[in-house]
Amino acid sequence: MSCEVIIRIFKFIPVIFITSIIAWSWYAYVIELCFGAVHSSIEAFFLLVFYHISLFFLLWSYYKTIFTKIALVPPLFKVSRAEMDQLTNMRSPDEQSRFLKTLSKDLPIVNCTINNCVRFCEKCQHIKPDRSHHCSVCNACNLKFDHHCPWVNNCINFSNYKYFILFLGYGLTYCIYVCLTMLKYFILFWRINPFNYKGELENTSTGKFHLLFLFVVAIMFAFSLVSLFGYHLYLVLKNRTTLEAFRAPIFCIGGPDKNGFSLGYRKNFEQVFGQEKKYWLLPIFTSLGDGVKYPVRKHLLEDV
């Protein structure tokens, strides 16, 4: 087995862990709670229906986040071998900067470096489109790169950012649903002896462990997800990526500006979720644009 295969398997360990947690939670909730602890068949039916709806959307969005291909930089931005040879043979940084500006004069870019130079990736050998960055884990430049997430073994970027947010949202919904519907039974465990009570609870010690542990794990994940989900909703409404929140994008006109891509809350939201409301909650690609060119605030284009 080659080292590359071993590394790929190793990178999937966090995904396997999350998937195992979800699979175990299904067993604990469906088998131990609904079939083992809930006495009313009507109550169990409705618990199972809404549980599986929540689970379906969680798994769908998680799958799309993991397996959606990275949005790579299009060939238009690629520097040819001959141009690359010219660039490397130039002695001064100023000469290289002027050459890159010549190559990029017809490209749709408004971002630059702190020195007002064209953003260039030496590893991928292309001019960087606006909001794109190189991921050292995937060894590729991503369009609208947000971050690399080990829990999905994928880059979060233009192509799957909506799916990632929905995954966080549905994960939070799943945890809250489990906690709320289990609360009554969780309390009963501490009020009565579960081995003798046959009206609501009739579990073995193993079943009791599964349900108690599921309740605690769901609360822990809910607290983690509520902050992460809230933060990314904030970024969506501000039209920023995680990188841009920590390091403001630099514009050729106007310099650093965290709000340079902000168009107002509604338009910012539509940039990620699209303009058709019926698709907002579905892990279907509806983001606006092509990932290369983005609308910016008017004052950043006044001299263009």
UniProtKB/TrEMBL annotation:
Its EC number is 2.3.1.225. It comes from the Eukaryota. It is found in: Membrane. InterPro entries: Palmitoyltrfase_DHHC, PFA4/ZDH16/20/ERF2-like. The chain crosses the membrane at residues 12-38, 44-63, 163-190, 210-237. It is a multi-pass membrane protein. GO terms for molecular function: protein-cysteine S-palmitoyltransferase activity. Residues 119-246 form the Palmitoyltransferase DHHC domain. GO terms for cellular component: membrane. Keywords: Acyltransferase, Membrane, Transferase, Transmembrane, Transmembrane helix. It is an enzyme of class 2 (transferase). It catalyses: L-cysteinyl-[protein] + hexadecanoyl-CoA = S-hexadecanoyl-L-cysteinyl-[protein] + CoA. PROSITE patterns: DHHC. The DHHC domain is required for palmitoyltransferase activity. Belongs to the DHHC palmitoyltransferase family. This is Palmitoyltransferase. The lineage of its organism: Eukaryota, Metazoa, Ecdysozoa, Arthropoda, Hexapoda.
